[in-house]
Amino acid sequence: MDRDKLKAALENGYVEWQRHALERIIERGISRKAVKENIMPTNLAIDEKLLNEALKVSGHKTKKNTVNEALKEFIQRRKQKDILSLFGKD
């Protein structure tokens, strides 16, 4: 879909989440697949030794999958910690 078609779609009353996704495509040149799957292209300076160890420990073949799993585990542990603090345990 070219930029003109995307702009026309925005003007033709797409619902808010569709408008937001189309605006992201236009502004950042992100592929439709990336927007649909809620992928955020980014550049991060990550400790190479930590990442390589995480790759080995996780068994994942890609850095992307390794980092995504690590983020999910981090979030899960923080939520568990918050729940424990409700019961007076740190």
How would you characterize the overall build of this protein?
It holds the Pfam family VapB_antitoxin. InterPro entries: VapB_antitoxin. The structure is a single chain. This protein is mainly α and about 90 residues long. It folds into two domains: about 5-35, no CATH class; about 50-85. About 70% of the residues lie in helices and about 0% in strands. The chain is built from five helices and no strands. The protein has helices spanning about 5-10, 15-30, 30-35, 50-60, 65-85. The longest helix has 24 residues, at about 65-85. The model has no long low-confidence stretch (mean pLDDT about 80).
Summary, kept brief:
The chain is mainly α and 90 residues long.
| Classification by helices and strands | mainly alpha
Label the overall shape: flat
N-to-C CA distance: 52 Å
Point out poorly predicted stretches: none
Share in helix: 55-70%
Give me the number of helical elements: 5
Average pLDDT for all residues: 78
Tally of DSSP β-strands: 0
State the major sheet: none
Approximate strand percentage: under 5%
Q: Mind telling me the C-alpha Rg?
A: 19 Å
Give the H and E element order.
HHHHH
> How many separate domains make up the residues?
2
